Amino acid sequence: MKKLIAVILSLMMMLCAVSAMAESTNKVKIGTVSINGEFTLQCGIPEGYEPVPGLVTPGLVTAIIRSQDPEAPIMQLSVAFDEKYYDVERMNDLTAEELAQLEETYVEDDPFVEITYGETGYGTQLLVARHETEEMDYIAFFSIYKGYCVEFVLAPSMSAEDKNLTEEQLRLSVDFLTDLDFIPANTPIVNQKTIAGQTFTTNLTEYNAEANTVKAEVKRPIHLDADVLASLEVGDMLTIGQEVIPVETLERDEFGATVNDEIDLTIQEDYVRVSSFEHEYMDTIAIMTLEIPENMVFADGIDPETGDILDEPTEHTAAEFAAMLAAGGYPDFASDNVKVTFDDDGNMARAERFYTPWQ
Predict the structure, then answer these.
(1) Measured between alpha carbons, how far is 11 from 52 in angstroms, rounded to an integer?
(2) Strands, E, within 82-185: which ranges?
(3) Which of 26, 76, 208, 357 has its CA 20 to 30 A from that of 271?
(4) φ, ψ for residue 254 (rounded to 5)?
């Protein structure tokens, strides 16, 4: 994580050095990180602003977001992998002790900084570090997503007469972070027509109560060709989607084979199914934000209070389903245990959650 004052100073110096850029589109790619999974970073740009790329390495992407108005605040985004948080899906998963350690990194740099907490429109927790004086304000928003530390700094421009930030400007920052996408490598961003009339395993996360939308990661099972299994030997490298796995042990039987005592390759009619005790291997085919229609139905095969399997699924309205998404917690809707059926327009018609041993 960057120290707040150092970030502010470097941000202002970089802003003075950059040259003018062409007008940007509303949603732009700002770089790719690849230390803990490969993700393309994409963000919406506030009206009147334009992105100025900074550092881009496998573990770090920085960018200045500057306005064409010299009086408007300046912004800096930093996305950096931190090994300490390699297994943290979102900052919401941190303990109170871990959050206190994060707070200390800001306080030790600026004893007068005020620490509060907020969240993006999708419910991702934000640490908000603000220094507010009569002379000048500055503020940093910090969060964690899939092991990457995301820090967004907002500060008045050097030429601004009023160096205090407004609530509207702070809201602009939260909207920016809500709009920041981590898109897995090789994932197409498709429209809803692509998935119309079909049923897919779909991870549902980041419910936005205000817009009544949910982030949907649509997946399909990874299938291998039969000749891959036929020719596989110990010492080979087995490619499963984006994973490349060294074959250390290989046990064959009439149903297929088991690799490394954990990956089952099961012969089907015209393909080989790939699974393990914990999950079926999946490819992400689309990531999109979907509205929850009033007429959709949710069938739940899990007791939401215990996580246990139900003898008979219970059916719920769209409003009840939205309330479950908003509540979050365990069991969630992102463990490859939800199937969504899409109507002919690509809208959610039915969602079903079922019990899995790995949820």
Answers:
(1) 11
(2) 114-119, 125-132, 137-145, 148-155, 181-184
(3) 357
(4) -65, -20
Q: Give the closest residue to 290 by CA, choosing from 141, 147, 128, 122.
A: 122
* Of 289, 290, 294, the residue nearest 316 (C-alpha): 294
Determine which helix (DSSP H) or strand (DSSP E) holds 213, and give its type and residue range: strand 213-221
- Burial class, 272, CB count within 10 angstroms (exposed 0-12 / middle 13-18 / buried 19+): buried
pLDDT in tens, 85-126: 888 888 989 999 999 999 999 898 888 889 999 887 667 788
- How far apart CA 207 and CA 209 sit, in angstroms, is 6
Number of Cα atoms under 13 Å in the Cβ half of residue 227: 0
Burial 7-28 (b: 16+ CB within 10 A, else e): bbebbbebbeeeeeeeeeeeee
SS3 content of the chain, % helix, strand, coil (to 5): 20, 45, 40
Distance between CA atoms of 323 and 107, rounded to whole angstroms? 37
- For residue 221, is the peptide bond before it cis, meaning its omega torsion is within 30 degrees of 0? no
pLDDT digits (tens, 9 = 90+) for 181-234: 777 766 555 556 678 889 999 999 888 888 899 988 888 888 898 889 999 999
Amino acid at 319: A
Assigned token pair, 306 = 């215990």
Assign 228 to helix, strand or coil.
helix
Contacts of 168 (CB under 8 A, 6+ apart): none
> CA nearest 51: which of 25, 16, 81?
25
Q: What is the pLDDT of residue 121?
A: 64
Of 129, 135, 100, nearest to 112 by C-alpha is 129
